């Protein structure tokens, strides 16, 4: 390998988050080839380890930004195992993060293993709502997140009918209802400002 090739590879590694893309491929590939498919109503789990790349400036526990990044991988994993993203794409749509809220309860110390569970908790015409939890092996929920996944160019009610368990929407959880109300209040304020 020549010097120029090394410099180009190093430049690409610096300006693109290569590890992120490698992890995406690994996460989706593992789900595709080594795990059983899941119903949309089933919870999925992936596992992680808080390493030196995940910690805050004090090198003691996971940085808040890393939680959000790990939630991405867990969401991709859920999409892959349930087939929901493939169905969205086949219908000409896409998915984009519309909102998220993370409640940090207790830190995840460096070199500690954890799992992230992902569960579909509700949907409406335009979005699906996921609840995700970071759980360490002592069983403690270290952080809990809710996310609104906007589904573009697809009516979510029609989408969900294609999946077993998607014909009847679950009851909307109270905390989700209140969170959506808070999002609407914030949106109204922004619309007034615009």
UniProtKB/TrEMBL annotation:
The keyword Transmembrane helix applies. It comes from the Eukaryota. The keyword Transport does not apply. InterPro entries: HotDog_dom_sf (IPR029069), THEM6_lcsJ_thioesterase (IPR051490). It holds the Pfam family 4HBT_2. The chain crosses the membrane at residues 6-31. Keywords: Membrane, Transmembrane, Transmembrane helix. Belongs to the THEM6 family. This is Protein THEM6. It comes from Chironomus riparius.
